[in-house]
Amino acid sequence: MKKEEFSYDAAMEELERIVEKVESGECKLDELTAEVKKAAELITKCKQKLRGIEEEIDKTFNDID
Fold first, then answer.
1. Contacts by 61-65 with C-beta closer than 8 Å and gap 24+?
2. Whole-model pTM?
């Protein structure tokens, strides 16, 4: 089975949806913990993606020199 590719943009959209849901009061108290956990996981994955991109860019510039 092929592993699904992580999409930074899709993760950011999902984070925005979660924030809007919580801020608007749509999020029921029973759902709050699950939404916060999901947001934390997405933030972690986004940070990892950004670090990886930064490393690739640094490597590319280092290869130029």
1. none
2. 0.80
